[in-house]
Design goal:
About 35% of the residues lie in helices and about 30% in strands. By secondary structure, the chain is α+β, with helices and mostly antiparallel strands. The protein folds into two domains: about 35 residues, no CATH class; about 30 residues. A hairpin with a 3-residue loop joins strand 1 and strand 2. InterPro entries: CsrA, CsrA_sf. Keywords: Bacterial flagellum biogenesis, Cytoplasm, Repressor, RNA-binding, Translation regulation.
Amino acid sequence: MLVLSRKAGETIWIGEDVEIIISEVKGEQVKIGIRAPRSIDVIRGELRQDVSTSNTESVINNLDFFKNDKD
């Protein structure tokens, strides 16, 4: 993992297409802006985990449905 220190107004580039802008730093909270092509999904980490968990539960429920359907 790369760890960088940035101040408000400074940027970080990822590849040629993604720019991270540090908008504001207030206490323990940092506000960032992200400029990226529409083809790149940008999602908060906790939402990604929620979606992953939800998808796993859905697969398990579907497997249970088919298992019970054969009984």
